[in-house]
Design goal:
The chain starts with 16 loop residues before the first strand and ends in a 7-residue tail after the last helix. The chain is built from eleven helices and 14 strands. The protein is an alpha/beta fold and 334 residues long. Helix 3 packs across helix 4 and helix 3 runs parallel beside helix 5. Strand 1 and strand 2 form a beta hairpin. 35% of the residues lie in helices and 27% in strands. The protein folds into two domains: 221 residues, P-loop containing nucleotide triphosphate hydrolases (Rossmann fold); 65 residues, 2-Layer Sandwich (Alpha-Beta Plaits). 35% of the residues are buried. The strands form three sheets. The chain has a six-stranded mixed β-sheet with strand order 6-7-8-3-9-10, with helices on both faces. Strands 2-1-4-5 form a four-stranded antiparallel β-sheet. Bound molecules: adenosine-5'-diphosphate and magnesium ion. Adenosine-5'-diphosphate binds next to strand 2 and helix 1.
């Protein structure tokens, strides 16, 4: 796949995105201002695919609107490629493109015309537009729909056209707000692969999602956003290790015997269930205790099959958000 080299300022030393103590109050003068961002801090390196994960109302869209210069923060600073979003919004806009929730494709134009129009709007030379559109359609699996009007496409495909559009231009930073929401898994695969390919070329991609699996599949690093703050930031492994380690284990024996449960109960279990020849357990602790448990069980009765899974991102997400709910539920966001 051929890409033009990104004509961008020197990104090597500076973070692609840097937010410091960002606060956004909506209706600040009313009796009940909404604190959409609450001293949010974030730093994203060039070339990262970074995911903002959080439930509705967490503040993800507000952060993206500030970074794309659509709204001003109440206080704090934010820079994109080292340029301040409040002081030099025009320069920031030159280095970004965005798929925002309210963006729409031109529904009465064909897929190809949507891409071309976007390219022209961004001053891509006309001889390059067709070439670029062909590349983007191939990448995003849109070839076969090229002459169809967007109005006639399914919801998931419409979304895919919106996402594909922003890759018509070579901007170093791409923002995507829930861009892959509503795509079916087949559609999604082409889109996720294409996004990953663009990141490999050195683009920074900041996306929001409330779909954990999407973040898990695509992102190098993740921030979990809640009540306008990043409550956890890191790569997947790091975020997973922030919660007490737990493993789910399923063990099938040749036949079930009471000694199996007696032996299992000697270990620090979170739960245990048995049906037929299988027991399902959750064990708290290290990898070692899992092996010790399996070893002890196999001495009681031969094991036919076992499976061990560690906490998924979903467990982590729920635990982090759950803990915060208990410790700080003082209202604010609605
Ligand atoms: N234009 C607005 N006016 C007033 N309140 C808003 C506005 N936009 C968002 N909010 C509020 O700010 C909070 C954060 O919203 P938002 O940034 O859209 O979160 P998310 O994208 O994570 O769902 C919510 O409480 C929301 O109701
Ligand atoms: Mg949103």
């Amino acid at each position: 796949m051929v890409f033009r080299t990104l004509e961008i300022m020197n990104l090597n030393e500076k973070p692609a995105i840097h937010a410091v103590d960002l606060v956004k109050l909506y209706h600040p003068k009313s009796k009940h201002p909404v604190r959409a961002l609450d001293n949010l801090n974030l730093e994203i390196a060039p070339g990262e695919i970074f995911g903002l994960l959080g439930r509705n109302g967490a503040g993800k869209t507000t952060l993206l609107r500030i970074l794309t210069t659509l709204v001003r923060p109440t206080s704090g600073t934010a820079e994109v490629c080292g340029v301040d979003v409040v002081k030099e919004p025009y320069r920031v806009r030159q280095s970004i493109c965005a798929v925002l929730q309210e963006n729409a494709a031109e529904i009465f134009l064909s897929v190809l015309d949507n891409l071309s129009t976007y390219g022209r709007f961004h001053s891509i030379p006309s001889r390059k537009i067709r070439e670029r559109a062909e590349m983007v359609m191939a990448q995003f699996g849109l070839d076969e729909y090229r002459n169809q009007k967007v109005i006639d496409l399914s919801g998931g495909l419409k979304r895919r056209v919106q996402v594909a559009k922003v890759f018509m231009v070579d901007k170093p930073v791409v923002f995507m707000d829930e861009a892959t929401t509503g795509m079916d898994p087949v559609n999604k695969r082409a889109t996720l692969d294409a996004i990953r390919e663009h990141a490999r070329q050195g683009r920074t991609i900041l996306l929001t999602t409330h779909i954990l699996q999407e973040a898990e599949e695509l992102c190098d690093r993740i921030a979990i956003v809640d009540h306008g703050r990043c409550i956890a930031t890191g790569d997947l492994q790091m975020i997973k290790s922030m919660v007490a380690k737990a493993y789910d284990i399923s063990v099938t024996f040749e036949r079930m015997r009471p000694e199996i449960l007696e032996t299992a109960r000697k270990f620090p279990l979170l739960k245990i269930q048995s049906s037929h020849n299988t027991i399902e357990l959750s064990v708290k602790g290290s990898d070692g205790s899992t092996f010790a448990l399996l070893d002890a069980l196999s001495k009681v009765e031969p094991i036919v099959h076992f499976e061990v899974t560690s906490a998924s991102l979903e467990d982590v997400f729920l635990e982090l958000l759950g803990n915060r709910e208990e410790s700080a539920d003082n209202g604010g966001a609605s």
